[in-house]
């Protein structure tokens, strides 16, 4: 195995393009576990952490660009990012322990393509866009199009995610991520919901996006569920309809962490609770 | 396969080592540098017994490749006491019997030290969450949490 630590995006793309068995390394909290368990045997590892711009969170058109080497601890230390996109930051904050958060990245969480990845639903709800670097330059892709199934992504040979752009938050916006796990820490989501919504001047929900995690082979964009909220004040009837639509949009499997029936039920409950938190935040109250 | 030459700072001292690309920082610390205070519990980032501080951040050294340490700063349990003088956390852990078998202790001490450097006045909940990635199979955690809280209070009083 060859280890390299390029200092530019172009160099990293060239190294990855030159060797189909090479793998990018961000925080290593998935990659090293698999390497050590001998589930993978890459011929080369390309560490992305020495590329200065990938280590930064930068403001862009009122939104925030998160470099692919930014650990989730750094996101949660960034007051402006947290206040713009609290739901995204709380998703990142649920990944593993303090030790894991000192290393793990949301780009790695996305590219690992695990169905239960905690940071992904709210990134999707936020309308985040991944900037992909490759041997022929860069392209942008909505984050929901990156994972294509468990462990699979839409990245082509030599491509990697260089950064993720969170758009400028709308006025009166709130976001939230909630997951269900048997334990409060160090557990994998049985179901998870990310939501971002905004209110108009009269207090009605103007925009809403909802994404469901761990209830399908990849993150599910629950557009119908989001539509039921639009034009309402987020009253009980609207939240009940949301709950039902979220359950209906889920396509879960049964496994050791929960049955399909349980997951479908829980995802509806989480959707409602996450929407309440996002509403509170959109109104400028603390939640 | 040629080995990689790494120059890094460990507990304030510049250190050189040669490693294989797939060796972890924990492997090198324990097997090549004779710093066996960091323990391998699970080898998969779940238990925290191998906790070290890498450029100011608490990490599991079992999930860091050794060549990643090039040019970085690593702090391990071996750097915690000053000669014979124990760090206040170490002293308090002994006084309050916040350990039994001791395998998790180095990782917990390193993690707790990093917490108190960032937050001198943590709540019990904050201590418990911060240490959620450090598993202890003996104590039931209570004495550990109390020892960290009391050390924090002592350090605040002394400051
Ligand atoms: C103890 C423990 C607890 C955990 N708990 C959780 C949890 O609660 N929730 C959760 O969602 N996950 C959890 N994880 C899994 C893991 O921490 C996350 O998926 C993390 O976000 C992965 O990010 P990373 O930067 O460490 O990725 P890496 O391990 O560096 O990479 C993961 C995969 O993505 C590829 N990759 C990395 N970066 C890029 C890039 N920029 N472009 C293209 N491909 C890339 C790598 O080649 C690799 O295949 C846990 C892991 C451990 C060890």
TrEMBL record, chain A:
Keyword Flavoprotein: yes
Keyword Mitochondrion: no
Listed GO MF terms: FAD binding; oxidoreductase activity
Keywords: FAD, Flavoprotein, Oxidoreductase
Domain FAD-binding PCMH-type: 1-171
Database matches in PANTHER family: XANTHINE DEHYDROGENASE SUBUNIT C-RELATED
Descriptive protein name: Xanthine dehydrogenase family protein subunit M
From TrEMBL, chain B:
Pfam families assigned: Fer2, Fer2_2
Domain of life: Bacteria
Keywords, alphabetical: 2Fe-2S, Iron, Iron-sulfur, Metal-binding, Oxidoreductase
GO molecular function, one term: 2 iron, 2 sulfur cluster binding
Domain 2Fe-2S ferredoxin-type: 4-80
Alphabetized PROSITE patterns for the sequence: 2FE2S_FER_1, 2FE2S_FER_2
Coiled coil: none
Oxidoreductase among keywords: yes
PANTHER family attached to this UniProt entry: OXIDOREDUCTASE WITH IRON-SULFUR SUBUNIT
Protein name (record): (2Fe-2S)-binding protein
Organism whose genome encodes this protein: Rhodalgimonas zhirmunskyi
